[in-house]
Amino acid sequence: MNISVNPLVTKHSNLNSALRMTIGGAQVDARDGSTMPVIDPSTGRQVATIPEGKAADADRAVKAARERFQSPEWRKMKPVARQRLLLKFADLIEAHADELAELESIDAGKPLAIARNSDLASVIDVFRYFAGWATKLTGETLDVSVPRMPDGEFFAYTKKEPVGVVVGITPWNFPISMASWKLAPALAAGCTVILKPAEDTSLTALRLGELALEAGYPDGAVNIVTGRGHEIGAALVAHPGVDKVSFTGSVATGQAIGRSALDKMTRTTLELGGKSPVIVMPDANLDWAVTGAAMAIFFNQGQTCTAGSRLYVHRTIYDEFVERVVEAAKQLKIGPAFEDGVFFGPVISEAHAEKVMSYVDTGRSEGVHLTLTGERLDRPGYFLSPTVMTGTRESMRVVQEEIFGPVLAAAPFDTEEEAIELANGTPFGLAASIWTENLSAAHQLAAQVQSGIVWVNCHNLFDPNLPFGGVKLSGLGKDLGRSAVESCLEQKSVMIRLQ
Ligand code: ADP
């Protein structure tokens, strides 16, 4: 294979080893030999190729996962053994964290320090957290009356059983984090898994496939396949051997997956897009709120499903607040993933850079005021600078549609009621943040915002124990927390007649 490795990558990355799929315990290429390029968004250069799996590869991955799921060895595995495997997997990820962070930086353009200290650190925590759940799953015993048999005596209980073969389909913005969100709860629940990472960012997932085998997962328990969403992804979702699909990505793809899955009653968790509001009350701690609002939208170049892309500030502090957010945006160090001190890397691809910039034009034609005008930087790679739009109105596309880039739409409000109306005024309901020092207001506003998660005086903070997932068009079901494990379990009711 002819690979020109990014010259900046020398220390830890073993790029060659992260280039094959893991199916049934073997490292394999696509059955028909097809490959797809791996592009480094910091340079725009191709650094490697990875397998472009197709329906035939989906099929062999499902067969391997099914066979393993049905094997006596797997079915009889004790919870404590599942826990140990997950802990071993976590230890190996930790031991290889520098390497994985480098792969993530090459692949997704994430500044290296962020990939290492944020993404990898959280992935290790996620695996260790879900390892704990393997030994803590419970059913219930229930007192039942059975009206039809008034003299009968019964014992009833529920039992949790692994749903079966779980397919995880992940997006390109947080590749290894999303992989951990899909793999860890399913494995804790006793399922076998097939992970299909996004075509733009598959390297860390492929490497996880090898580490899973090293951790001791038996053949077929953890499978990693790569390829195009509409081919191998769609083939996995439609496959009769799949019991559950856990998807994170766009609304349109999530809807298509949901429809296809419903044909076979395949279970789904769908974590979709957002247009998350940041509401700043007049009594907010402004230092926190300004930094928080800027980070909410500009972290990961705005490529975050929970990005705080709509800023609503009380009119009495609006002008000063926006000015300070613009100042904060101008301070962000933009540069390639491997440059020291960079906070703001490239966006994922040429096509995405064009899409984001086209929204800046859309805003202009809709009549927004460009308080800070984002520009395409004149250098190799896919670099854009941040945009702050003011004078926005609810009906505008730039306020209603997910841009998934560093583009902020700001507007003032006068009353709490108006803030809530604005916050709830899109089809999305993924996340929101409220900035206030008033405890009562915080709780009252949190109760009224339609979203899966509400942060108060913080934004974009996740914890493995805190369920995460959206309402409205932002999705169905939860990742993380106990809910994520429960979603990989079926509840069986058992009733025994004693008398
Ligand atoms: P984006 O538009 O940002 O690429 P998508 O929601 O289309 O986001 O992609 C998220 C993930 O879903 C990726 O792994 C992609 O390959 C996969 N995907 C895309 N289309 C389909 C599909 N029809 N069926 C299954 N997976 C898909």
Describe the protein's topology.
Elements lengths: L20 E3 L2 E3 L6 E6 L4 E7 L3 H16 L1 H4 L3 H17 L1 H12 L3 H23 L6 E2 L11 E9 L2 E5 L5 H15 L2 E5 L6 H13 L6 E3 L4 H10 L5 E5 L2 H12 L4 E5 L5 E4 L5 H13 L11 E5 H17 L18 H17 L2 E4 L14 E4 L6 H4 L6 E7 L2 H8 L7 E5 L3 H10 L4 E4 L18 E2 L4 H6 L2 E9 L2
Parallel strand pairs: 7-8, 7-10, 8-9, 10-11, 12-13, 12-17, 13-16, 15-16, 17-18
Antiparallel strand pairs: 1-2, 3-4, 5-6, 6-20, 11-19, 14-15
Helix pairs in contact: 1-8, 3-5, 3-6, 3-7, 4-5, 5-6, 10-11
Please give a structural write-up.
By secondary structure, the protein is of the alpha/beta class. The protein contains 16 helices and 20 strands. The strands form 5 sheets. It has a 7-stranded mixed sheet, with helices on both faces. Strands 9-8-7-10-11-19 form a 6-stranded mixed sheet, sandwiched between helices. The chain is globular, with a radius of gyration of 24 Å. 54% of the residues are buried. The structure holds adenosine-5'-diphosphate. Adenosine-5'-diphosphate (ADP) is lined by residues 169-171, 196, 198-199, 229-230, 233-234, 237, 249-250, 253, 256-257.
Quickly list its features:
6-stranded mixed sheet, single chain, 39% helix, disordered N terminus, 499 residues, alpha/beta, binds adenosine-5'-diphosphate
Please provide a brief summary of the model.
With 499 residues, this protein is an alpha/beta fold. Helices cover 39% and strands 19% of the residues. It contains 16 helices and 20 strands.
Question: Within the largest sheet, what's the order of strands?
Answer: 14-15-16-13-12-17-18
The percent range for helix content is: 25-40%
Q: Biggest β-sheet, characterized?
A: 7 strands, mixed
Mean pLDDT across all residues, rounded?
Answer: 96
Q: Low-confidence segments, ≥5 residues, pLDDT <50?
A: 1-10
User: Per the principal axes of the C-alpha atoms, what is the gross shape?
Assistant: globular
Class by helix and strand content?
A: alpha/beta
Bound molecules: adenosine-5'-diphosphate
Percent strand equals 15-25%
**Strand segment count:** 20
The separation of the N and C termini measures 70 Å
With helices defined by DSSP (H or I, 4 residues minimum), what is the helix count? 16
Radius of gyration: 24 Å
